Amino acid sequence: MHKINASSAMVGLVGNTPLVEIPTGSDNPKVRLFGKLEGNNPASSVKDRAARSMIQRAEDRGDLKPGMTLIEPTSGNTGIALAMIAASKGYPIELVMPANSTAERVRTMRAFGAKVILTPGERTIEGAIDFARHRAKQDGYFMLDQFANTDNPLAHYETTGPEIWRDTDGQITHFVSAMGTTGTIMGVSRFLKEQNPDVTIVGCQPTKGSRIPGIRRWPQEYLPKFFEPERVDRIVDVSQADAEVQARWLASEYGMFCGISAAGATLVAQQICAELESGIVVTIICDRGDRYLSSTVFADSGEQQTIEKLELS
């Protein structure tokens, strides 16, 4: 029997995710909306692409050597992707994340063999970044730094953008993406604009006070280093409440089980569709909904009441 290297096998599964049609919310047949199902990656999110790119290129440059311990701050999906690839390549890894992250994310990282360090939740991802950067100064640690590493957007310039262009036969008119590290929107924007400068790039960020895992309104001092505002034509705010309603709708009415940031981006994409006379809109469905089951997103009040009654009986 021919043996397949486990590292090559897992890394080789990253990318070439499906592009599926989503209801636009209108009756205009000249406008179509598609979602790119990044939950189909081996570690179940779009961050698999950046994780593969950052680790492989660090190895190619000789920056990352056998025996080094990876360390990275994360709100969840990047950490899971890094843990999966680190496991397949034999690197120890420590992941630093806010203590109020969902239990599924923490457990998934640990399942891949990662050490998870939880920082105070009230300090959000910025606190995790500060801790990881301090730890990275110690001997033997290597921090990829997804918020400053240009290998992050390069992954989407080389893979996500070309896949979208190919699968829409070059007909895409609008691209909509949540903005976290901004690696996805930066890389895809660069590629699509090179093919057609008229493609409109739309970014999504949370309204003030909203907490949506994976997307942020960054303080200036923590703004990702590779973010270039001129690559985004328009930014639309989405509320946490609306994104959660959209997540439930996509799952229960359409069978698309995705996370909150993906749902928020889909909602914005539908709003864009309503403004158009014709066009092809593509959005990123960046992960899967099963990473949010311990939150209240997919539990309605009736379910919660039933659980309470069962516990009391």
SSE layout and pairing:
Elements: H1 6-12, E1 19-22, E2 31-37, H2 47-61, E3 69-73, H3 77-89, E4 93-98, H4 103-111, E5 115-119, H5 124-136, E6 141-143, H6 151-167, E7 174-178, H7 183-195, E8 200-206, E9 234-238, H8 240-254, H9 260-275, E10 279-285, H10 301-312
Parallel strand pairs: 2-10, 3-4, 3-6, 4-5, 7-8, 7-10, 8-9
Antiparallel strand pairs: 1-2
Helix pairs in contact: 1-3, 2-3, 2-6, 3-4, 6-7, 8-9
Quickly describe the structure.
The chain is an alpha/beta fold and 313 residues long.
Structure description:
- This protein has 313 residues and is of the alpha/beta class.
- It folds into two domains: 8-44 and 156-292, 3-Layer(aba) Sandwich (Rossmann fold), CATH 3.40.50; 47-143, 3-Layer(aba) Sandwich (Rossmann fold).
- 42% of the residues lie in helices and 17% in strands.
- A six-stranded mixed sheet has the order 1-2-10-7-8-9, with helices on both faces. It has a four-stranded parallel sheet with strand order 5-4-3-6, sandwiched between helices.
- Strand 7, helix 7 (183-195) and strand 8 form a beta-alpha-beta unit.
- Helix 3 packs parallel to helix 4.
- It is globular.
- Mean pLDDT is 91; it is low at 304-309.
Shape: globular
Quantity of strands, as a count? 10
The structural domain count equals 2
String of helices and strands:
HEEHEHEHEHEHEHEEHHEH
Computed structural class: alpha/beta
The parts where pLDDT drops under 50 for at least 5 residues are 304-309
**What CATH architecture of the largest domain would you give?**
3-Layer(aba) Sandwich
Can you list the strand order of the major beta sheet?
Answer: 1-2-10-7-8-9
**Number of continuous helical runs:** 10
| Average pLDDT figure | 91
